């Protein structure tokens, strides 16, 4: 592993430092508040076998470990994302029409290193927010294809930071405003800036008012955040924009590391046996196995999935409870059928279907 010290709050510059160190043909990105499914990287980089694919993006699950935060999306010329209707499992290679791009989520994406070098990597003018959107727009403009890979999944937890708290309530909008200003200067004609900023500002105000109604913000907080948004936009309107240069050759050569195929197992348990079976799961993790521990209670509780600190995938919920949003509130079934259904749902991502 290569570790690079960097303490400046600029995600684009940090990504570029990583690219400079990366010596593989493909560079993958994931956030520090995200956990990948065991087969994530295998699925994510597979489309790179096609010579026309320059970028790859996967799907992102939210805090309950089941509902999707983001799936496949495209970008219009204003940088606004729109949902795509894609095959639920197969990778789709997309060539966006002129003026549009394919969205890759910052917490789950990969690119050919040679293309990142050609395009100058990420633009450090984006300290936070829109960094990958800007790269996506440049990829589309240059005519590169992007593959969206549904089975390349990560679980994204939204850890608290200087921008938001754990409940995703904003703490500061300065960088949001600054990044939108940079984006407009790079991708929109000047005559569009005023109307676009008015629309984006109204959207941010509506978002803050929703938090005000729910009790997450008070009126003073709303006014302060809107002021910071405007200050950020003003600063971003004059922020220096200059192309980054990524070294053609990495700082250090590629470092091989040993890897071996791991067995993936599912242990079905009940609340009364959970502690005992958790101990069994821990012992199997120490044997280098991928372990899913599924605890089904005799009720209709909603299901949740979490990644245990000791390296176990833990799913808890009622035997008759809803896991995916399309399920009925009460799912009448038998225990064996429910276990098999949930096993099938996560099997490919977790390697449960492999011998």
From TrEMBL:
Signal peptide: none
Keyword Transferase on entry: yes
Keywords linked to the UniProt accession: Glycosyltransferase, Transferase
Molecular-function annotations in GO: glycosyltransferase activity
Coiled coil: none
Source taxon at top rank: Bacteria
Family according to the record: Belongs to the glycosyltransferase 2 family.
Protein's recorded name: Glycosyl transferase family 2
Lineage, top ranks: Bacteria, Pseudomonadati, Pseudomonadota, Alphaproteobacteria, Rhodobacterales
């Amino acid at each position: 592993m290569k570790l690079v010290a960097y303490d400046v709050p600029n995600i684009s510059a940090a990504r570029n430092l990583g690219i400079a160190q990366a010596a593989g043909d493909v560079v993958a990105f994931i956030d520090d508040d995200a956990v990948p499914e065991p087969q994530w990287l295998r699925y994510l980089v597979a489309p790179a076998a096609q010579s026309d694919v320059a970028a790859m993006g996967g799907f992102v699950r939210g805090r309950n470990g089941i509902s999707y935060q983001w799936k496949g999306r495209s970008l219009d010329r204003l940088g606004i994302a729109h949902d795509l209707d894609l095959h639920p499992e197969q990778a789709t290679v997309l060539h966006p029409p002129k003026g549009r791009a394919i969205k890759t989520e910052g917490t789950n994406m990969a690119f050919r290193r040679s293309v990142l070098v050609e395009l100058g990597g990420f633009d450090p003018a984006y300290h936070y927010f829109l960094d990958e959107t800007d790269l996506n727009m440049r990829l589309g403009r240059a005519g590169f294809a992007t593959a969206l890979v549904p089975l390349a999944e990560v679980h994204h937890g939204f850890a608290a930071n200087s921008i938001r708290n754990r409940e995703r309530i904003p703490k500061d909008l300065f960088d949001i405003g600054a990044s939108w200003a940079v984006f407009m200067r790079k991708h929109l004609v000047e005559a569009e800036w005023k109307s676009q900023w008015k629309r984006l500002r109204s959207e941010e105000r509506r978002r803050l008012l929703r938090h005000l109604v729910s009790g997450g913000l008070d009126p003073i907080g709303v006014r302060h955040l809107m002021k910071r948004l405007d200050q950020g936009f003003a600063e971003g309107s004059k922020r220096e924009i200059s192309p980054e240069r990524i070294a053609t050759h990495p700082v250090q050569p590629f470092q091989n590391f040993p890897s071996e195929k791991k067995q993936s197992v599912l242990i079905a348990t009940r609340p009364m046996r959970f502690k005992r079976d958790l101990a069994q799961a821990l012992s199997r993790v120490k044997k280098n196995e991928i372990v899913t521990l599924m605890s089904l209670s005799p009720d209709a509780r909603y299901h949740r999935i979490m990644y245990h600190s000791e390296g176990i995938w833990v799913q808890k919920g009622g035997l008759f409870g809803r896991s995916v949003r399309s399920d009925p509130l009460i799912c009448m079934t038998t225990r064996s059928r429910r276990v098999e259904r949930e096993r099938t749902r996560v099997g490919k991502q977790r390697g449960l279907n492999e011998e």
